[in-house]
Design brief:
heterodimer; A: eight-stranded mixed β-sheet; 7 helices; B: alpha+beta; six-stranded antiparallel β-sheet; four-stranded antiparallel β-sheet; flat
């Protein structure tokens, strides 16, 4: 083959060819991977010193006071206009039933009526829900959008962060961590 | 509903036509026909027509809010204004790919018309290669992103278009950007064809130059509109964030700019043949990479949640096939057909173009690495980093100084050999540049030698470009785009160093000051619009001459989908933009107000328009000596 002979002669083109193929595989893995990432424990202490307002009882409270008394907290950012959140609610309900975790919902850029309807329709998996009308609280957490879920421990360290809706594997993982 | 069906079948017919064209042109190639048959031209016309029908059907479905169509249901709403119903057609994955296809088939049709005097086998080969891309995209659209999927039961209301996309600049941004982005495909096909048909010469350069300029102008326009949108809509007062999505449009722009300079050298001097072909391939590959990165959801971005990995894998594989194909063709034909003159350079325009290319290629690699390095790191080492403006500033800014210096002297060089005369005039320009730069730096209060050097470089480029106006044979294309470029750099630099900002929490009736201006919060009002409700803040600005400027920033609460956006209120003057945004703080009677001075903002837009104007001069100036 003419092509193969030429390739053999030129190391430069061979290198380019190899680089192309490596890039292809890197991108391919990146496509399949992306969603979950576990941050380094020491670095990832979330910022908790701010005021939040409840969705059901509109009372203002410091978020630090919310995070007391339990070993694990699951913070879920959701919204009634978010389609994947609807599918996600069954997983959250399962977690509520089968783990000792305190479930905290952050209602992202939503209105009260729609949010309450959503909970009525799909069930309420949360122990406490706070509103985030402007999306600023979610930004504090470093969230990308809705839905997004953070598993944190009593020292406010983020153990796991899930971008996008939870699935079976995620639920299994959360159960394993929290029931130990 | 029927219209949706029409669109779908029209797409299938389009695909069939493409396959037919592919075989038809390969048969004609074998026969070695001297003229391209009318049948082929007709078929290419039909192919475009089918995609056009399909595109119109989708627009129509959006206009009548046909919620039996899944794409319409997901992205539209009956209460949306007509303009946003139409622009919503390409404001989503499926519709935007249909637009891709429309432009892709459109440029081929344009190419066939514009290349009537070219050799037949070159035209046929271009058609052949282009059909590979077209067929690939047809299958992609039909298989993974069909815009005409039906949903049952038929919904009565749609989910709405993301309010952040409901903006006039963003409405026309995708079509303009795509004309530039997808326009590079014909450059790619033609480059491969010219290589095989042994046609990499002056007349080829003349022929393909139109398409390079075409893509370059539209790509510049597309990037401009995107920046304008970011400035007015995102409400941060910035216009370029080195966001990966922005970078992927900048990369083909950079390589197109390099290509633009090369193709003229090829046209005049038959030099850089191989390099020009490589740039043609790189340019298209980069726009495919961009499409892949944006459309696959591989970049963690708010808009790419419900992503489907199969789409990404498809584009990626297709991209690899195209790149490998061009690679193989390049390797085989590399030395066969490229007889060139020896490339020995003295002080000449060729050297200037070569240096220009080195620099642009360097900038391109910086942007490329900054964009894909985080992805590689994530896959290989499982580490997350984000590459931000400091990275780009550190690596690009210092190299801009020599770059603009070469850019200043390059145009006054001659082909083959230049004898530089350093006369009183050159001395005067340098002195004037120095004085101007010192004055500017002093005025903005930056005591930094590096910034002074940047200003010296940029002003020198500006003066040298304007100086060209005095020459006998004026090249407006070059004068305009180089002047525009220097103005752009100057305005960006001034903008970033003398922007001022203040953030305050204040109640109605209170006021605060920024420099010599007093900002008074007059009142608040609530207004109802068709698809949103808005809270409008009325502000009065008293400047140092006591003139009153009124600003009314808004917070819009859209109903479908429910979402709040902050609409900045901007007062533009020739030298300064006044930019104000407000935010509500829950359960408080005060507002978070952010007031900014953004100097020379309008010059950033104007200078980009001047750059584009330069490109247009180059297109419309025919059969004349065109220099760079």
């Amino acid at each position: 083959m003419q092509f193969l002979e030429k390739i053999k002669k030129s190391i430069f083109s061979l290198i380019i060819l190899i680089l192309l193929i490596i890039s292809f595989f890197v991108f391919k893995f990146a496509l399949q991977k992306e969603k979950i990432y576990s941050p380094k424990m020491s670095e990832n202490q979330i910022f908790t010193d701010f005021e939040v307002v409840g969705l059901i009882e509109e009372k203002q409270i410091n978020f630090n006071e919310v995070l007391t008394g339990k070993n694990f907290y699951l913070i879920n950012i959701w919204s009634s206009w978010c389609e994947p959140c609807k599918d996600e609610s069954e997983y959250l309900l399962e977690l509520k039933k089968n783990t000792p975790v305190m479930m905290i919902g952050i209602n992202y850029k939503d209105n009260k009526k729609n949010a309450l309807n959503f909970l009525k329709l799909y069930g309420n998996p949360f122990d406490q829900i706070f509103i985030d009308k402007q999306g600023t609280i979610s930004i504090n957490f470093g969230a990308y959008g809705v839905p997004e879920t953070f598993l944190i421990n009593e020292e406010n360290k983020v153990l796991k962060k899930y971008i996008g809706p939870l699935n079976d594997e995620d639920v299994y993982e959360i159960k394993k961590i929290t029931n130990n | 509903m029927i219209i949706s069906q029409l669109g779908y079948y029209s797409l299938i017919f389009g695909l069939l036509t493409s396959i037919f064209i592919f075989f038809n042109s390969s048969i004609q190639l074998k026969k070695n026909n001297l003229v391209i048959s009318d049948k082929t031209t007709g078929l290419i016309g039909f192919q475009f027509f089918f995609v056009f029908i399909s595109f119109i059907s989708l627009i129509y479905s959006f206009i009548i809010s046909d919620f039996s169509n899944e794409t319409v249901y997901n992205n539209s709403h009956t209460t949306k204004p007509l303009f946003y119903k139409i622009t919503g057609t390409w404001g989503n994955h499926e519709g935007s790919l249909l637009l891709w296809l429309l432009v892709l088939t459109g440029v081929l049709l344009g190419f066939i018309f514009k290349s009537r005097n070219e050799p037949n086998n070159y035209r046929l080969l271009t058609t052949l290669f282009h059909q590979i891309i077209v067929i690939g995209f047809f299958i992609f659209v039909l298989k993974t992103s069909n815009p005409f999927n039906e949903i049952f039961p038929v919904q009565t209301e749609g989910l709405g278009l993301n309010p952040i996309l409901q903006d006039p600049a963003l409405g026309i941004h995708p079509p303009i950007l795509y004309l530039g982005y997808v326009g590079t495909s014909i450059i790619f096909s033609a480059a491969l064809a010219s290589m095989i048909s042994n046609y990499v010469n002056k007349s080829w350069a003349k022929n393909i130059k139109f398409w390079i300029l075409f893509s370059w102008i539209f790509l510049t326009g597309g990037i401009l509109l995107g920046s304008i949108w970011a400035y007015y809509e995102l409400g941060w007062g910035g216009f370029w964030f080195w966001d990966p999505v922005e970078n992927v449009s900048l990369m083909p722009w950079l390589s197109l700019t390099a290509l633009l300079h090369c193709i003229v050298t090829l046209e005049k001097r038959e030099l850089f043949k191989k390099w020009t072909i490589v740039l043609c391939i790189i340019t298209f590959a980069l726009s495919m990479v961009g499409t892949f990165l944006v459309r696959s959801g591989i970049l963690n971005s708010v808009h790419t949640f419900a992503n489907d990995p199969s789409r990404g894998i498809y584009i990626l594989t297709f991209l690899l096939v195209l790149v490998l194909l061009s690679f193989v063709i390049f390797i085989i034909y590399e030395n066969k057909n490229f007889t060139q003159k020896s490339e020995i350079f003295t002080l000449s325009k060729e050297t200037a173009v070569l240096i220009n290319n080195w620099f642009i290629l360097y900038f391109l690699s910086v942007v490329l690495i900054g964009t894909i390095y985080p992805i590689f790191l994530d896959v290989i080492l499982d580490e997350q980093i984000s590459v931000g403006p400091p990275f780009y500033n550190k690596l690009i800014l210092p190299f801009l100084i020599p770059f603009v210096l070469f850019m200043s002297i390059g145009p006054s060089m001659k082909w083959i050999k230049t004898n530089f005369k350093f006369g009183a005039k050159s001395f005067f320009v340098i002195v004037f540049t120095m004085v101007l730069s010192f004055f500017t730096v002093y005025f903005i209060g930056e005591k930094n030698i590096f910034i002074l050097l940047l200003f010296i470089g940029f002003f020198y480029l500006l003066l040298k470009s304007l100086d060209q106006l005095r020459e006998k044979t004026k090249n407006f294309a070059q004068i305009f785009s180089h002047t525009g470029f220097s103005l752009l750099l100057i305005s960006i630099l001034l903008n970033s160093f003398s922007s001022r900002e203040i953030v305050k929490n204040i109640q109605v009736g209170e006021s605060f000051t920024l420099k010599n201006e007093k900002i008074i919060f007059k009142k608040i009002a609530i207004e109802k619009e068709k698809n949103y409700e808005s809270i409008v803040g009325f502000f009065e600005i008293l400047d140092d001459k006591n003139t009153i400027i009124n600003l009314q920033p808004e917070i819009r609460i859209y109903n479908e989908p429910e979402m709040a956006t902050s609409e900045a209120s901007i007062k533009t003057t020739l030298f300064k933009d006044r930019f104000i945004t407000i935010n509500i703080i829950k359960d408080q009677n005060f507002f978070n107000v952010r007031y900014q001075h953004k100097p020379f903002m309008i010059w950033i837009w104007i200078s980009t328009l001047i750059i584009m104007l330069g490109g247009m001069f180059a297109i419309f100036r025919k059969n004349k000596e065109v220099n760079i």
